[in-house]
Amino acid sequence: MNNANGRTLAGVISELKEEVKEFLETRYQMLVSELQQKLATWRMAMPLFLVALALGAIGFLLLSGALVAAIALLVGWGWSFLIVGAVYLVLGGSIGFLAYREIKEVGVAPTRTINVLKQDQVWLQSEARSQL
How many C-beta atoms lie closer than 10 Å to residue 6's C-beta? Predict the structure, then answer.
C-alpha cells in the first residue's frame, strides 16, 4: 500500500526503525563519552584526597604530640610540634579543598547528556503536536 508520497508503510516503518536506532546509539555514545570525562576527573582528584587524608593524619598526630609535650613541659620544644602540626593541617585542608572544588565543578551527573535528552523530549513533543 503506497501513501501520497509513494512510500509503502513497511518502508516508512523500516526507516523510522533505523532513525530510532541511530538516535539511541548517538545518545548512548554521548553518555559514555561524558562519563569517561568525569571518571578521568575523579581519577585525578582521588590522589589529592589521599594526600589530604595523609597530611590530615600527620597533622593530628603532631598536634597530639604537641599537646602532650606542651602539657608535660609547659614550655619549650612542644610548641614546635604545635607549629608543624598546624602547618600540616592547613596544607591538608587546602589540598582537600582543591580536590573537593574540582569534583564539585565537574559534578557527578552526566549533565550534557541530560540536557540533550531534555531538548529531544521538547522537540518530540512539538513534533507530535504538529502532526495531530
Answer: 7
Neighbours of 60 (CB within 10 A): 14
CA–CA dist 81, 79 (Å, integer): 5
**Per-residue tens of pLDDT for the chain, all 132 residues:** 555 566 777 777 788 788 888 888 888 888 888 888 888 888 888 998 999 999 999 998 888 787 777 766 666 677 777 777 788 889 999 999 998 888 888 777 777 778 888 888 888 788 777 766
Q: What is the C-alpha separation between 54 and 17, in angstroms, rounded?
A: 55
* Cell numbers representing residue 5 in the block: 508520497
- Cα–Cα distance for residue pair 62/68, rounded to 1 Å: 10
